Amino acid sequence: MPNIDAMATEVARRIMILFFVIDTSSSMMGDKITAVNNAIRETIPELKNMTNADAKIKIAVLDFASGAEWQSPQPIELDDFSWHDLQANGLTDLGEACEMLNEKLSRKAFMNNAVGNYAPAIVLISDGYPTDNYKKGLDLLNKNNWFKQSIRVALAVGSDYDRSILAEFTGNDESVIEIHKKSMLMKIIKFVSVRASQIASRSSIVSEEKDNDIPQKNKQFIESLKDIDELNNISIDDIDDDVEFP
């Protein structure tokens, strides 16, 4: 017979959604999108092994190229999530991705958990310049309380990108991480995904779309990014560290 106390604890758990917003434009073809696919696939078991009694983690994936698309109609619970490889082709419609993200960051959409939600964690991965009106979409996001309170990080892949645009998305330059090698892309995706999830799913919840711990959580996350230098000492089998992105 199920333990009633355990069932009550499970029912009462709040939700923290980890969003992956991924550039799948033509410039991501080849090593870049392969490294992203492999990295996120390898990250999922590490997220599942996280011990956090406060939150149930769900994952939502939004990819953008010529248009943008959610990979599932609702965020998927971590225990049920499996990664399906993304393909790269098309333009870089970051603005449309921002608009679609804004629509889902609402109590009428993804943030509708009856018990409550933690502010989300959002990982943006891109290697180029937006080809649409990104400011329109980003302006909408910047008025969205869920977005404003989220932990955000942008991974800039290669050398052909505009750092200032990515900093506009994250809200500060410190949360933009430049990645030039295939091995580091894989390591850093795993690092920021796990660290952001750990920090975002702790302590207070969002009440009336306000989380008083958010400034401290963001400060803690930015501080943790200093540990990225240590990743140079972590080896990953079957990865050529000398492979650099254009």
How would you sum up this structure, described in words?
The chain is of the alpha/beta class and 246 residues long. Helix content is 37%, strand content 18%. The chain contains eight helices and seven strands, in the order αβαβββαβααβαβαα. Strands 1, 2, 3, 4, 5, 6 and 7 form a seven-stranded mixed beta sheet that branches. The longest helix is centred in the C-terminal third of the chain and has 19 residues. It starts with a helix and ends in a 22-residue tail after the last helix. About 9% of the residues have low confidence.
SSE blueprint and pairings:
Layout lengths: L3 H9 L1 E10 L7 H18 L6 E11 L1 E4 L5 E2 L16 H11 L16 E6 L7 H9 L2 H5 L1 E7 L5 H8 L5 E4 L2 H19 L13 H11 L22
Parallel strand pairs: 1-2, 1-5, 5-6, 6-7
Antiparallel strand pairs: 2-3, 2-4
Helix content: 25-40%
Oligomer: single chain
The number of distinct β-strands equals 7
Question: What characterizes the major β-sheet?
Answer: 7 strands, mixed
Distance between the termini: 59 Å
| Low-confidence residue ranges | 4-10, 204-209, 233-241
Work out the helix count. Answer: 8
Helix-strand string: HEHEEEHEHHEHEHH
β content, as a range? Answer: 15-25%
| Helix/strand/pairing category | alpha/beta
Shape: globular
Whole-angstrom Rg: 17 Å
Task: Considering the chains and any ligands shown, give keywords for the structure.
single chain, 246 residues, alpha/beta, seven-stranded mixed β-sheet, 8 helices
